[in-house]
Amino acid sequence: MPVGKDRRYGLWAAFSTIVSSSSQFLLLYCLDFWVYLRDGLVARKVHPVVPPKAEYELTPLGLSLGAAFCGVWVWTAENLKDVEKARSTFDEKALRGD
């Protein structure tokens, strides 16, 4: 996944392109984002402004996960059609009661 010069923002940038700004809070909630903060994978900087503003970035520890996730992304890209076909086959059998 190509990202800017500073790779720490790459993951968040990727998420931001997928969801609208109004859905970003929901995304953070659904991903249990606070666990990542607690584990030291993500850093949070709060700005004392109105309306409230916070910035997030991957820490060096968070960046170290990139290689592991890259393999999953590659596998997904290579096998997505087969997974979708298996799901369709399963769903069709379930509807028929097989």
From TrEMBL:
The HTH hxlR-type domain, residue ranges: 1-84
Gene3D superfamilies in alphabetical order: Winged helix-like DNA-binding domain superfamily/Winged helix DNA-binding domain (1.10.10.10)
Keywords assigned by UniProt, alphabetized: Membrane, Transmembrane, Transmembrane helix
Domain of life where this protein originates: Bacteria
Ranges that cross the membrane: 12-37
Keyword set includes Iron: no
PROSITE patterns (alphabetical): HTH_HXLR (PS51118)
Keyword Oxidoreductase belongs to the record: no
InterPro entries in the cross-refs: HTH_HxlR, WH-like_DNA-bd_sf, WH_DNA-bd_sf
Record-linked SUPFAM superfamilies: Winged helix' DNA-binding domain
Protein name according to UniProt: HTH hxlR-type domain-containing protein
